[in-house]
Amino acid sequence: MTLQNAFEHEGETRDKIILGKILGTKPEFRTKVKEISIEISEIVSSVNKLSIDEQKKEIDENFPEILAPKEKIKEREGLPELKNAQQGNVITRFPPEPNGYPHIGHAKAAIINSEYAKMYGGKFILRMDDTNPEAERMEYHAAIKVGLEWLGIEFDIVKSTSDDMEVFYEKGMELINSEKAYVCKCKRDEISKNRRERKSCKCSKEDVDKNISNWGKMETKFKPGEAVVRFRGDMKADNAVMRDPVLFRIIEGKHYTVGEKYRIWPSYDFAVAIEDSIDGITHAFRSKEFELREELTEAILDSLNMRKPQQGFFSRLEFKGMPISKRIIKPLIEDRKVSWYDDPRLPTLEALKKRGIKPEAIRKFIMSLGLTKANTLAPFDSLEAFNRKFVDENSIRLYMVSNPKKLSVKNLSITAVEISNHPINDMGKRKIDVDGNFYISGEDAQNIKEGEQIRLLGLGNILITKQGEEMEGEYVKDGDIKGVSKIQWVSQKTAHQIKIIIPKILFIDEKFNEDSLEEMNVYCEPHYLQLKEGEEIQFIRFGYCRKDSQNQAIFTHK
RNA sequence: GCUCCUAUAGUGUAGUCCGGUUAAGCAUUUUGGCUUCUCAAGCCAAAGACUCGGGUUCAAAUCCCGAUGGGAGCACCA
Prior knowledge:
Elements: H1 2-8, H2 15-25, H3 33-49, H4 52-62, E1 91-94, H5 104-119, E2 123-128, H6 138-151, E3 157-160, H7 165-177, E4 181-184, H8 188-197, H9 208-220, E5 228-231, E6 246-250, E7 264-266, H10 268-278, E8 283-287, H11 293-303, E9 310-314, E10 317-319, H12 326-334, H13 349-355, H14 359-369, E11 376-378, H15 380-393, E12 396-398, E13 400-402, E14 404-410, E15 416-420, E16 429-433, E17 437-441, H16 442-446, E18 453-456, E19 460-466, E20 470-476, E21 485-487, E22 489-491, E23 496-503, E24 507-508, E25 511-512, E26 517-524, E27 536-539, E28 543-549, E29 552-557
Parallel strand pairs: 1-2, 2-3, 8-9, 10-11, 12-27, 14-20, 18-21, 23-29
Antiparallel strand pairs: 4-5, 5-6, 6-7, 13-26, 14-17, 15-16, 17-22, 18-19, 19-20, 23-26, 24-25, 27-28, 28-29
The protein binds one RNA strand through helix 2, helix 3, helix 8, strand 6 and helix 10.
């Protein structure tokens, strides 16, 4: 073993390392560390005296097996194992609030929870967390469902928190009756101040009868803001969430599905605790900002003698320079700095789709981030790398020319060429008519000198006879493929003009990037017109783009 | 201010619970090479990390203490 290690490290080894290896593989020596370490030192120094060739000889003669290449460490696949989980008995959930358009953050929560359900052959529930009528809308509800469908996430059960209003009332009454909750009539500011100062208010001392009658008044008489139900937590707790949090409050707005049927609405903490318990959720993964809520969720369920789910937490996911919150996006839309929530510069699912990111890539990407609680500010690059693998296989290759320059070729003996749509996969061929009049890219034109040969891809070599605004050349029959620069081209007669939109980073160091949307007017092959909208293509030597319409494409990535 | 979470290459992570079998694995990025009628994809190679300071131990990325950086919570939002 000493020999092996020495050989692997250029003929030198260290006794500490050898000791570690022996103790690691043979725990029975651990009690005799002193004795064996002396022995090891001797062996090590004798091995180190040998030259590397002598070591190799020794190995060949006596221990040939250790020259076999080491097997690589196996990378764990997928997510880490769950605690207290049994195959077939896992139920997870994704509870978005329908108060905005779904984005990459939603995707992370949904994918992690659904993957766990899948991993354990369990169930996965989509629960629209709609307990604040003022913020929620059908439009968002629908957008979330569309987004998740696009991601390819399947649910066993779809429900809304508001389906269970009667249960919340029942459980709320139970808490009031058992003195675990009380009606508080303090002003909002007062509650907040008392929380900070860790002081109870006088409402918390009211008896059960008074609380019950006040609950009655909440149903009819009190106005929004005049009374709330609070959980009797611990006003002295270090965890501020435990300082008598609100369980119910009055909201009079019209709810997008149940209308004005209810005016007392449960708070998030209460609703989630109860819902997770009655839905049979075994494992609930929430993003890190809810970490302090774990204690409260458990306290509520304990006081109701209800079953508790196992909770887990993961970090929020954001891309560098791509805002995720409505607070930032909304003003951008109002100022017309971005067009809408599907603007390709945004990290919403709709935008990612428009930009040409594939759902499989998002899934792989999110799985690659793991379940870490450290903040993740991923660069968009890594998503692109995943996406490229999916997109490359089935994007047809087309020629496109930017900053077009004219090139006319004399003595062109052919009138049409056939070009295959993909270099490796069989995706058919297309025929292009040519008449000697081409466009080539301005960038390529710059690099060409008179008297040089270039090759128009798929067509043939051209000897450039005249540089300048309008270039001229001669067709070289059977030209040499190797050693000439190969460039893409478009036939002047059939060239189709499109606009390519290049989305770039929206914020640079917290400042809006005024140049975040670049537009290019380019010529491409007429074949573009025959493609379906939404199809991914690769403009050769430029990058992958998604066809947005007959005259507009969006740049996906290199 | 108080409380909680977090810290591994340029970037994202695995390993940390239960110290040694791995002088830290993977992906991405960058660079070089091969292949190729694309500057794509594919293949090969190189480069590159345990935040800092103490302690425990024969042995610390891993355990303990402290410091520092980053994030979150202290809503009648979720």
